[in-house]
């Protein structure tokens, strides 16, 4: 779903580091796992980068996942941009993958039970989590969000998550569906990263400080 007709650019951002990330626990669509001090610093850096790019009080529609970590990240960015956080819109279709029975579990414990559960080349799960969802379901819900918000005026900022943002960006830039995962994916980026998508073309405008080689993917 590459919408080259939408008027305005989309800035898609991954939230800052959380207490679950640093503990290597599976967050999934957990409603609230607070940012760490590093996560707050990443959000600060995101706000500074966007202010340098867009200036103060830009004409920017604010969107976020309903998860607390996305809203915390957005609050800090909005302060840098001198925008009203209370004007932000939320949508549950932007939340992270539902990890089902694995939600809250440590990655090391899951790896002991299912050593091949991760595809480390793509940094994706090889199978749906028990009681959770698969990537095709994420593609369906973010595509629905895109269709319903197509009339948003001008530029917008969207704060979302690791895996859901990769699917969202993959849909928006017309990436091929990876048959083993059932969805299109954009490249993985560290927490605190921002991309700009303009008429289906993605550019990284700020690379977060998270260590992508060691951080949990969600």
Write a concise synopsis of the structure shown:
The chain is of the alpha/beta class and 218 residues long. It has 6 helices and 10 strands. Helix content is 32%, strand content 17%.
Quick tags:
single chain, 218 residues, alpha/beta, Rossmann fold, 6-stranded mixed β-sheet, two-stranded antiparallel sheet, 6 helices, 10 strands, 32% helix, 17% strand, globular
Write the layout of secondary structure elements.
Elements: E1 10-14, H1 19-23, H2 37-54, E2 60-64, H3 68-81, E3 89-90, H4 107-113, E4 118-119, E5 124-125, H5 135-148, E6 155-160, H6 162-172, E7 177-178, E8 183-184, E9 194-198, E10 201-206
Describe this structure in words.
The protein is of the alpha/beta class. The chain has a single domain (10-206), classed as 3-Layer(aba) Sandwich (Rossmann fold). It contains 6 helices and 10 strands, in the order βααβαβαββαβαββββ. The chain has helices at residues 19-23, 37-54, 68-81, 107-113, 135-148, 162-172, and strands at residues 10-14, 60-64, 89-90, 118-119, 124-125, 155-160, 177-178, 183-184, 194-198, 201-206. The strands form 3 sheets. The chain has a 6-stranded mixed β-sheet with strand order 3-2-6-1-9-10. A two-stranded antiparallel sheet has the order 4-5. Helix 3 links the parallel strand 2 (60-64) and strand 3 (89-90). Helix 5 packs across helix 6 (162-172). The longest helix is centred in the first third of the chain and has 18 residues, at 37-54. The chain is globular. It starts with 9 loop residues before the first strand and ends in a 12-residue tail after the last strand. The model has no long low-confidence stretch (mean pLDDT 93).
